[in-house]
Every structure is written in C-alpha cells, then in structure tokens.
Amino acid sequence: MRALLKHAKGLYSAKFYRPSHLRVGLRDYFDLRPRPEQLHSNSVHIAAAMSWLCAAHDGTPDGGVSARYRLDRGWAPSYPETTGYIIPTFFAHASRTGEEQFRARALRMADWLLPLQLESGAFPGHDVGKTPQPIVFNTGQIMLGLLSAFRETEQHKYLRAALRAGDWLVAMQEPNGSWLKHTYLNRVHTYHTRVAWPLLELWVATGGEDYRQTAIRNLDWALGNQLPNGWFRENGFSDNDKPYLHSIAYTIRGLLASAEILREHDCTREADPRYFNAAVLAAEAVLHRFEIRRYPFAQYDSAWKSVERFSCLTGDAQIAKTWMNIYQANRDPRFLNAALKMNDFVKSTQDLSSRNPGIRGGIKGSHPIWARYIRYSYPNWAAKFFVDALVLEDEIMSRLDPEAKHEPGVALQTA
Amino acid sequence: MNLVLLCKRHNHRKVLEILSALRAQNLEVRGVVALEARAALPSFKELVRKLYSRRLASAQARKRAAENAPNARLRANGKAAHIGAFNTNGHAALRFSAKPEAPLAIPSLYKTVDDYTRAHNIPLVAVPDLNGKACVAALQKFQTDLLILGGTPIIRAHVLQLPRVGTLNVHMAWLPGVRGMNVAEWSVYTHAPVAVTVHFVDAGVDTGAVLYREQIDIAERRSIAAMRQKLSFEQHRVLARAVRLFVDQQLQPEPQVREAGKQYYLMHERLKQVVERKLREKEYK
User: Fold this and answer.
1) Which of A128, A144, B120, B124 has its CA 20 to 30 A from that of A415?
2) Pairing of strands B146-150, B3-8
3) Which 3 state secondary structure label does DSSP give A376?
4) Interstrand relation of B195-200 and B210-215 (parallel, antiparallel or unpaired)
C-alpha cells in the first residue's frame, strides 16, 4: 500500500495530468512503440534530437546545456560535465549539415565552461548553482569538449584550460592508477577509463608524457577490475553490484578510445591489444544478453544477469555506438547487427510529435519513464549519445550498402 | 534403431518433407511426437499495442500514398500490397501480407502430418509442451534410440538425455563456422560456405558433434527467399542421407571446436538488404 501511494505521489508530482505528460505515461504503460519497419529515417531522428539539444541549450540563460527536462519542474540548470562532451557532437553536426549555428552553439558552450574552471584546474561536478566541488570524472568529460574546441578553432585558451585540468588529474591520481579523491561518493570508479581517454588526447595534442603515463596507469588498474566474463568491479555510481549499462558503456568506450589513440600514436605499445580485448569482452557479453533476451536491460550483475525489466536509454545508445566502434575495428558483423537493433529500439522510444518541446525529440532517462535511472526526465546526455550512435550508423551503412539512401556522412570522432 | 521425430504439429510442410525424405532412404520412423499449437488469448496490453501499430501503419500508408502516386496505385491495385510497403528507413521496400505457400519439394499425396502418419501407420502423439511430462512419456514409450528434431523450440537437457544414441538436428549452415539464427543469410554475408550440417544436439546452441556436412549450390537463387527455399528442401534430404549412413555405421560424429565458429542472431533488415544484393550479384562463397 505504501509503495502504491509512493508511486501515485510520483505520478502526481510528475504532472501526469498534463496532456503531453499523460501521453508519455500511456505510451510507456502500454509500451506503444513503432515497429522497426515503421520507424523514420535516421536523419529525422537526428534532426529531432538535435532540435531538442538546442532547446536544452536555450533552456538556460548562461550558455551551458540544461542537464535535463524534468516532467515536474521543466528545464534543469546547465550541467558542465555533459555540456563538455556535447560540444564535439555539435561540431560534428555542423560539419555534417553545414549549418553554422551548431558550431556557434558549440563555441558558446566551450566559452561558458572556461570561467567555471576552479583555481586548481579542476572543473566542478553537479549542475551549476550548487557549491562547486572539483570532480575527477566531470573534469575529464569537459576536457573532451575543450580539446575538440581547440582542434576546431586552434584557440589556445581551450588548450590552456585542458592542460590545467590535465595537470590536476595527474596530481590527483592514486599510486595504483585509480582516482579516489574528488570522485563521486569518494569512491574509486572503473568508468574513469573515460578520464584516461581525454588525458591521452591531451598527450597527443601536447606531447606531455605525464598524461600518457597517468592514463595508462588508470587503464591497467581498470583491467585489474575485470572478471573473466568481462564484467567490471567498482563500476557503478552508487551500486557496484548492479551497475547501469550507462557506466558499463562509459568504461568500454574509455578503453576502446584509449586503445585507438595508443594504436595510432604510440609505437611502443602498438602490439598491445589488452585494452581493446577487454572492451570487446565486456561489449560482447552485453551483446549476447541483449540478443538472447531481445530487450536492453538497464543493470547487470556480475553474472551479466538483470532482474528488473526496464531500460536505460542512455546506456543503450552508448553501447550501440560502442558496438559500432568495435565493428569498425574488427569487422565482426554481429556488433553492427546488434547496434542496428539497439538504435531501432531507442528510436522507437523517441517522441517525434509531442507538442511539448521538452519532450519532442528528447530521449528519456529510462524506458518506461518512471523507472529508476533519471526518473521522469529527459537527460541531455541521452540525446547526445543517441545522435552520435545514429550518425555513426549512417556512416557505416552508407559504405556497406551503397544502394541504400543515406545523408552524406563524414567520419568524425565524437566523445 | 528406433527413430522418433520431434516436431510441431501444424508445421505440415516441413514435417512431411522430413518424413518423405526418411522414407526415400528406407528409414522407418517409430513414432512422431508433435507439439500441439495452442492459441493463447492476447492480454489487454497486447491488444492496445496491436491497435496502436495498425493505426500507425495505416497513418503512414496514407501519408505515403499522398506523397507518392505510384505507391498509391500499388495500394489501390490489390490487397496484397502491405501497408508498410515503402518506408524511409531503407527497410524492405515491399512486403506482401500473404506469402504464397511454396510447393513441397518432394511431391506428396498428403496435406497434413495426421494424414501421412495415419496412412503409413506411424503413431502420432500430440503434446502440449515438448519439454513436458507427456513428451518424456511418449519418447520412453517409443524406446527412442535416435531422436530427430524437425523444427522445434529449445529442447531441455532432460529430454535430450532420453534417446539411447542421441538427438540429431539439421542446421542451415556450415558448422562450426556459423551457429545460431538466420545462418543461411549470415553465411552469405560473411562469405562462409552455404551448406547444411547434421549434428548431434547438446546443451549449447549448435555446438554438438557434427555428423555430416554438405555444401549446397545456390547459384540460381537470387534472393533470400529463394535461397532459403532451396536450403529448406536440401536440408531434409541431407538429414535423411546422414541418418541412413549413420544407421549403416558409415559415419562417425566429429566433436566441434567451439572457437572455430561464432554464434549469430536474428539479422537486421538493413543487413538483409546487403545479403539480397550479394545474392543478386553472386557475391558469396
């Protein structure tokens, strides 16, 4: 009874009496999603998601991107971490479509981030408006945005900020390669491989050997957390026993991107496939679970089992992109096949016709919307990863099947 | 050796082909255990989903008909043109609501499994669950030596343990290379040999010892449907031949090296389009 009351209270506070919210609620309750053959082309979904991201950008007055659209309170304040890694997505979209407004927006985001940098070089976690706390992971993600802004503009203010952030990360690392101080809940996290990646990008940009050494120490530490079945220990935000697919995909992506950079730029480690193999091991385990159960579950325990039936759409889009990255490296079509299905799944959850601009084109935190991950909200990072995944799908498919109609695609590395 | 066929009762075409092929090899089937099709009532949620899907499909069809005159003509011309005929995602360009039933590869006087078994005096036991007690009892009653799977859902270990010699399955690809689902399509996609393999069934997916393999010539088959039709017939012929040779002790099972192959899953429509193109242009092994 108490649980029922709690649920009813949640529904009321999420304002499900509003028509646009009620529509979302009913669609999710009955799981009303178009079948794959009824979906629109990727370009339609990408355009809708980009419009949503622009609305999120305009939803706050400061130049950052609103963290999420909440059914109860509308647009949330800007979120520096995800604004950081949204920047490369906007640059890529500008290059793809030729629309200058996306590039201008990306630069406005990067310029908004610069003054947020703390004296130490770190960037704050959380949404803006709260007391700034330096956080390792968020600093790394913002570096990805700053480095892409530097590559685009060659303005050294972005590189200088990234260097200060990188120096802080080097100084904060524990001797075993993990980060413990200034982390979420003051714990070590395996998904910090996604911090090693921007450090390697910084090494490529500057040649600073410390950055490379720090990144490799972290990657080696992360490999030590992997079980023989591919699952990673210490990989949750708060629940390490059942991490979300979101953080699992973070870890895999960090390993993959790092492996790619090292393969391209580091002759001494050219023959070391450990990071790539570790990423493939975990990604393949998720792939088998997805294909067998035909549903992308949100959380996975150490045996890759999932108890609760709901989906973390952010993680779905991330893992789809990761599978395609693996396909690009090893040409195993099973990864592409699973990614196509996963993209279809996330596309089927995107509402393209709502009258509410906070809902139309956005990607929910969870499917159904009342499930645990970012409940009753449309986080900006879900839309970002969704766009990245669809863009990569189009790029791969246009090469694979020249007969299929696609928008012109360009190969771009997005964060 | 007591041969027993495990199948779905309503899967007449497949079962008749297998029984005919076995008969052509002078193999007597001791009994047939068939899954009885049950029509489950859809839940309220499923009904709502179905209505939503239909409404969406008809709305999309109306929109496309308005946009595209040739499409509209197609739609008006016949009921066969499916409402999802043209989509913007590069999926199947045209789908027909009713697939014409392919003729039996081996001409048969019989239309149903029941007709055939009655005419040839083969006991037929219908069961509600192929992993259930009734199925176990039937297999024990037939004193099964060799169980043949003729298009069944996953069979659990306690049933697989019953036959004295083992359980055979026929697989539409070369094992151990291509395991899993849509394997004929994956064979074309990955340039693996298009083949049929008869293998023993173990707890894994298509991982049991291989008894017999045969590469199949699909040169004249320029589409997935045509290829599958050919393979569907050939697999039953190959199965019957393998059983004959095995019964005559001319074949020995060969354990698979699992690492030599990969498990594949249902192929996405966009990759099937690539396969269709490869078949059209004869880009396969």
Assistant:
1) A128
2) parallel
3) coil
4) antiparallel
Residue range A140-196, pLDDT digits in tens: 999 999 999 999 999 999 999 999 999 999 999 999 999 999 999 889 999 999 999
Which pLDDT score is estimated for A400? 85
Determine the length of chain A.
415
Q: Does residue A126 sit within a domain?
A: yes
Is B82 within a domain?
no
Q: Total structural domains in chain A? A: 1
Q: In the predicted model, what is the mean pLDDT of residues A381-410?
A: 80
CB-CB contact of B15 with B150 (8 Å): yes
The residues, any chain, with a CB within 8 Å of residue B121's CB and separated by 6 or more, are none
Predicted structure pTM score: 0.89
Q: Tell me the C-alpha distance between A349 and A162, whole Å.
A: 36
What letter represents residue B115's amino acid?
Answer: D
B 188-247 residues with CB below 8 A of A?
A: 189-190
The CATH number that applies at residue B275 is: 3.40.50.12230
Residue A23 in any domain: the answer is no
Q: How many CB atoms lie within 10 A of CB A145?
A: 30
SS (H, E, C) B72-92: HHHHHHCCCECCCCCCCCCCC
For residue B210, what are the domain limits? 3-39+108-280
A366 domain residue, yes or no:
yes
Inter-chain touch B60–A397, beta carbons under 8 Å:
no
Report how far apart, in Å, the C-alpha atoms of A7 and of each of A10, A309, A312, A359, B147 are: 5, 17, 19, 21, 52
User: pLDDT tens across B106-129, in order?
Assistant: 556 788 899 999 999 999 999 999
Strands in chain B per DSSP E: 3-8, 29-35, 124-127, 146-150, 166-171, 178-180, 195-200, 210-215, 262-264
Nearest residue to A312 (alpha-carbon basis) of A401, A377, A266, A257: A377
Contact A34 B90 (CB under 8 A): no
Residue A203 domain boundaries: 34-400
pLDDT in tens, B55-90: 998 988 888 888 775 554 554 444 433 433 334 444
pLDDT at B271 over 50: yes
Window B:89-128, CB contacts with A under 8 Å: 89-92, 95
Total length of chain B: 285
In chain B, the number of structural domains is 1
ipTM of the assembly?
A: 0.90
For residue A36, list chain B residues with Cβ-Cβ distance below 8 A. Answer: 89, 91, 268-269
Structure confidence by residue, pLDDT tens digits, B142-198: 999 999 999 898 899 999 999 999 999 999 999 999 999 999 999 999 999 999 999
DSSP character at residue B269? H
Dihedral angle sign, alpha carbons of residues B103, B109, B113, B115: positive
CATH number of the domain encompassing residue A65: 1.50.10.10
A6 falls within a domain: no
* Residue B221 confidence (pLDDT): 83
Flag if A31 and B274 touch (Cβ within 8 Å): no
Q: Is residue B211 part of a domain?
A: yes
